Amino acid sequence: MSVHSFGGAWTERKLSVVRRYLEMYAQALKNQAFQRIYIDAFAGTGDRTDKRRETLPLLDLPEFEEVAKGSARLALEVEPPFHRYVLIDRATRRASELTALKSEYPAREIEIINDDANDAIAALCKATNWRATRGVVFLDPYGLQVTWDTLVAIARTKALDIWILFPSGMGLNRLLTKSGDIRPEWQETLDRSLGTKEWRSAFYRTEEDPDLFEGQRSKTVKDADPMKLEKFYLNRLRTIFPTVMNTSVRLTNSKDQTMYLLCFACANPSPKAKALVSRLAGSATKA
After folding, report:
1. Across the strands, what pairs with 249?
2. What share of the chain is helix, strand, coil (3-state, %, to 5)?
């Protein structure tokens, strides 16, 4: 079996938070009548290592130092188990590896989907009886692959909790060029992932620049520090989810530069559910 290369020290932190949340979630709902579902939309192979690197546009990814468990395997080890696991990966090779992983857990109900994560989640949200189901979604993309429509579909279930890895530094900030002259396809990516065009006014401002020969000239200035990027994204999530954690988990590189934000939201609007998940998410981030 091959393993999936992706991450660094920050990945340990990310998986620690998600694993802890799944453990507490499973315990909290174990006596409830709901069927519990876990959805991993970028599941990889189940394991990860430093033997290879992924080469992706706009990303320069650090490597692993040893073979370690990925999110899918960690979720499968949670006790009590979820009633259903849906593991999604677009790459045929990785989906094949997930099928091999499935054979290691014959007692688990595991569905492997070899498809685009956005399409798979949209179909899953439509097909599932959410009145009888509760669950957790882990969105761990390599870049800005998750569309806003996918997040809206998850929010409309009113049944799912979501942990999403948002590439504020590795994706968003790199597309926000200093000059404000952004390629059309990059603008489309930002519109699609943020669900709005308001990022243009949120992250850029116009200033008057004195010119010796022409007098005052207007220039576009980028205004997008890490805190502003985080605030903008969390506020966007609040437009569709009734509960969003006040702060994200900042995942940084060796220079303490923010690469990703691990954000939590809950689609269940009931006061009881909001109180429970807020407590669980808060505890998970302190692990």
Report:
1. 262
2. 40, 25, 40
Tell me the average pLDDT across 263-287.
95
Mean pLDDT over residues 225-235, rounded? 96
Residue 103 Rama label (left phi>0; alpha psi -120 to 50; beta): alpha
Quote the crossing angle between the two packed helices 117-127 and 148-156, to the nearest 10°.
20
DSSP 172-203: IHHHS-TTS---HHHHHHHHHHHSSSTHHHHH
Paired tokens of 126: 């439509």
**DSSP-derived pairing of the beta strands 160-166 and 258-266:** antiparallel
Of 34, 42, 113, give the one whose Cα is nearest residue 75.
Answer: 42
Q: Which of 193, 148, 147 is nearest to 174 (CA)?
A: 193
Residue 198 token pair:
């308001």
Query: Mind spelling out the 3-state secondary structure of 240-260?
Result: CCCEECCCCEEEECCCCCEEE
Tokens 């007098």: give the residue. Answer: 215
Confidence at residue 254, expressed as pLDDT on a 0 to 100 scale: 83
Is residue 45 a contact partner of residue 88, using CB atoms and an 8 Å limit? no
Instruction: Tell me if 235 sits within 8 A of 138, measured CB to CB.
Output: no
State how far the Cα of 12 lies from the Cα of 74, in Å rounded to an integer.
Answer: 12
Cα–Cα distance measured from residue 143 to residue 148, given in angstroms and rounded to the nearest whole number: 14
Candidates 196, 204, 92; CA nearest to 147 is 196
Mean pLDDT of the chain: 88
Lowest mean pLDDT among 41-45, 50-54, 66-70: 50-54
User: What is the distance between the alpha carbons of residues 209 and 146, in angstroms, rounded to a whole number?
Assistant: 38
Cβ atoms 41, 140 nearer than 8 A: yes
